[in-house]
Design a protein that fits this description.
Elements (H helix, E strand, L loop, with lengths): L13 E2 L6 E2 H5 L3 E6 L6 H12 L1 H6 L2 E7 L3 H15 L7 E3 L4 H5 L14 E6 L5 E7 L7 H16 L2 E2 L10 E3 L5 H7 L5 E4 L2 E4 L5
Parallel strand pairs: 3-4, 4-5
Antiparallel strand pairs: 1-2, 3-6, 6-7, 8-9, 9-11, 10-11
Helix pairs in contact: 2-4
Bound molecules: benzoic acid.
GO molecular function, one term: thioredoxin-dependent peroxiredoxin activity
InterPro entries: AhpC/TSA (IPR000866), Peroxiredoxin_AhpC-typ (IPR024706), Peroxiredoxin_C (IPR019479), PRX_1cys (IPR045020), Thioredoxin-like_sf (IPR036249), Thioredoxin_domain (IPR013766)
EC number: 1.11.1.24
Length: 212
């Protein structure tokens, strides 16, 4: 198992899934990706998370992000579980759930934390950019379902800051004012951001979202 750090290439893999065999890089193509693990099939919190992910598909599509879930159960089990998720959450899970029975992908991505649970994965999230680099990693315990609004918010920040010399402040949401990158002088920022730059402190300069 290799340690993955931000900026590393996401390890590629080929694995069985609820939609058949998939290769991560082929599946992602030119898209962003979000890979998230679930401790096990037919568990309550995971059921709410996968249903929510499916309900948010339109929002992930808008951002050109492909979802891939993972649990250490087999593909036949995933398919039965998906029926329950669709029924309970009134949705349609279309994205693949990796069937990681041999823990190959879980080990590759360090998703099993033995002191939390020796066999099941924790709730890991990896956001992968189109150049295949890992842009975000999150680790939640099995007992806490993730916040999919937060995942969309981070993707909005990652996509904005990939293209503009800005960063996003605490609790920022799409469309709100952003922080000018510390690498830019205030003088240069005023040329670059024509909607205005407010210098709160020499190191804290705010500007409207440059994309709206
Ligand atoms: C759940 O998804 O509900 C869950 C899974 C493992 C441990 C605790 C909760």
């Amino acid at each position: 198992m290799a340690t993955i750090r931000l900026g590393d290439k996401a390890p590629n893999f080929t694995a069985d899934s609820s939609i058949g065999k998939i290769n991560l890089y082929d599946y992602l193509g030119d898209s962003w990706g979000i890979l998230f693990s679930h401790p096990a099939d037919f568990t309550p919190v995971c059921t709410t998370e996968l249903g929510t992910a499916a309900q948010f598909k339109g929002e992930f599509d808008k951002r050109n992000v492909k979802m891939i879930a993972l649990s250490v159960d087999g593909a036949a089990s995933h398919l039965e579980w998906i029926k329950d998720i669709n029924e309970v959450q009134k949705t349609n899970v279309e994205f693949p759930i990796i069937a990681d029975e041999d823990r190959k992908v879980s080990d590759l991505y360090d998703m099993i934390h033995p002191k939390a649970d020796s066999t099941l994965t924790v709730r890991s999230v990896f956001i992968i950019a189109p150049d295949r680099t890992v842009k975000l990693m999150l680790t939640y315990p099995a007992s806490t379902g993730r916040n999919f609004y937060e995942l969309l918010r981070v993707i909005d920040s990652l996509q904005l800051t990939a293209n503009h010399k800005v960063a996003t402040p605490a609790n920022w949401k799409n469309g709100e004012d952003v922080v000018v990158s510390p690498a830019i002088s205030t003088e240069d920022a005023k040329q670059m951001f024509t909607k205005g730059v407010k210098e709160v402190k020499p190191y804290l300069r705010m500007t409207p979202d440059p994309t709206i």
